[in-house]
Amino acid sequence: PEQPTGFYLINALLAGDGTALLASLRHLALPAFTLGLLLSGIFEKVLRLNLRRALRSDYVEAARSRGLGEWRILTRHALPNALLPVLTLGGITVASLIGGALLIEVTFSWPGVALRLQQAISQRDYPVVQGVVVVVAALVVAVTVAVDVLVAWIDPRVRF
């Protein structure tokens, strides 16, 4: 499809081209796996540590003493509290993922924003460079705000 944004997936959605959308999703698998693999260990360790803490807490012991099943205790009491630090960590890592996505784009030879940014830098096309920086910064801010709102929604103790 036409390339107004530089993102294959978004361009396919905008064009309404189902074939291009499926092709872009299929080609996203390896780069997404590469990006996800880098951070999955960190997320797993943070979740495991916080889940162990939550399962040893007083409110979980109170739930056990009331006779609640382990699955209900895990899903209703321990897991929501253990996920809060993981969500916050996810919001923090968005900036590195976006930067990593640009590097992955170059590595897998995807002509997109990274290629356009590289061309703009080499041609000293400063408005394009500024535009890419503003869009990336806006994405980071939007995801960070969304994570903060989600954390406040999940945990009523967190207020702005």
From TrEMBL:
It comes from Candidatus Synechococcus spongiarum 142. Keywords: Cell membrane, Membrane, Transmembrane, Transmembrane helix, Transport. It is a multi-pass membrane protein. Belongs to the binding-protein-dependent transport system permease family. CDD domains: TM_PBP2 (cd06261). The keyword Endoplasmic reticulum does not apply. This is ABC transporter permease. It is found in: Cell membrane. SUPFAM superfamilies: MetI-like. GO terms for biological process: transmembrane transport. The keyword Transmembrane applies. The chain crosses the membrane at residues 28-47, 82-108, 128-154. GO terms for cellular component: plasma membrane. It comes from the Bacteria. Pfam families: BPD_transp_1. PROSITE patterns: ABC_TM1. Residues 1-151 form the ABC transmembrane type-1 domain.
